[in-house]
Amino acid sequence: MYNNSILIADDDELVLESLSDCLIDAGYITSSADSVSGALDLLEKSSFDVVVTDLRLGLDSGFDIIRYCKKRRPETAIIVISGYGTAELALQAIREGAFDFLTKPVLDNELQLTIHRALEKKKLTQGAATKETSIDEYRLNCLAELEDVIGCSDKMQRAFDIVKTIANAQTPVLITGERGAGKSTIARAIHRLSSRKDKLFIEVPCGALSESLLESELFGNATESKVGKFQQADGGTILLDEISTVSPAMQVKLLRVLQESQFEPVGSSQPLSADVRVILSTNENLYRAVQDGRFRQDLYYKISVINIDVPPLRERIDDIPLLAQYFLKKTCEQTRRAVAGFSDAAMSAMTSYRWQDNVRELQNAVERAVLLGKSEIVTLEDLPGAVRTKPAPAPAMFSNAAAINSQDDDSPVPDPSSIRLLKDALEEPERKIILDALRAFQWNRIETAAALGINRTTLYKKMKRLNLEEPGQFGF
User: Fold this and answer.
1) What is the pLDDT of residues 391-405, one digit of tens each?
2) What architecture does CATH give domain 422-474?
3) Fewest CB atoms within 10 A around its CB: which of 1, 183, 197, 245?
4) What is the pTM of this model?
5) Is there a contact between 339 and 345 (Cβ–Cβ < 8 Å)?
């Protein structure tokens, strides 16, 4: 239990109740206010560790709360939430003294992690008089804990926070991201930070194995006296890479392992059990695979409760110098080369380049430069030609849109009377997705919201709008 006190200010009663429930469940003590005056009254009477405030409270502004705290309660961390999030508003809020700015709808995990970061910063600030500790040192300590998981960008720091928060949980973890982004590295970090760290970590490349071979590898083969990876990883962690490639039959068997911790070796009807933390990774959109019928919906809901999305390198440019220096040092140690760093031109080229294969491509480029370079620093000429000359194209993630845009202009023109409002057209599939999720989780709204990747407040509003309020009307 945290027992830290948090004041929540929002003029939406539903949001106020949802955020309060979320934080109470997480172990915090909460107070609520639906107006600026109400929040200021509470701040006048009591001190709070954190204030979570909307920017629009009726006709008043949440900036008044920020300014009050900055002047009268400087020890209180301010987290701003807003349904009208813009870069300008966020920047203004941070300049006024807010710790962070979150856009509605706010996910429960996102809010809890932000509060955790705010409290950690507060703890360090309070201890500054007796300890020579700084925020920069704290961030470096985080990196040290995670060893070769490198990143100082906000997106990676949030990923690190999730890793440390869920390391000891038994719940499966789904790690998503483009190829080469570092999914396997994140999985190993989870294992290293968990109580399972002294047991085996086993990675299985599902996409590289046929269905029969994959089954034998995972569960063993009784006729060949072969021990499967799940048995080998008993007490430890197993990473199932490229999970989107496994067959429907294998998906059924994996779902059983996740639900019952049991499996049967090939050629045997005798069930075996193993205590294994399962981590899965993919560079494909699994939700789309569910919609296309290529991935089981129940398995998707089971594995996506905790989802860590590893951002591509082009979205965390601040991490490139750190990563490049890390790979430089590592390569020099392995090859006994003496290379001190990078020229300004080389670093500028690396930070401007759009790395299609992300961290993996950057690592290869640095290793090549160290091995082929002839000076004490990596120069522009030492880098691969593509990095020196022009940015690489972004990965083709929107090919379907491109195909639509390239249709012939003489295609049949739809009858104007057949056009439906976009809102109405999207409502039916949205209703089905939410209803399927509610049924899958026996109408447990907390689990349903987590599986859909939305917070409870958003789910409540959607259920009300789509007439999904009463389960009884659907025969449940």
Assistant:
1) 444 444 333 333 334
2) Orthogonal Bundle (1.10)
3) 1
4) 0.54
5) no
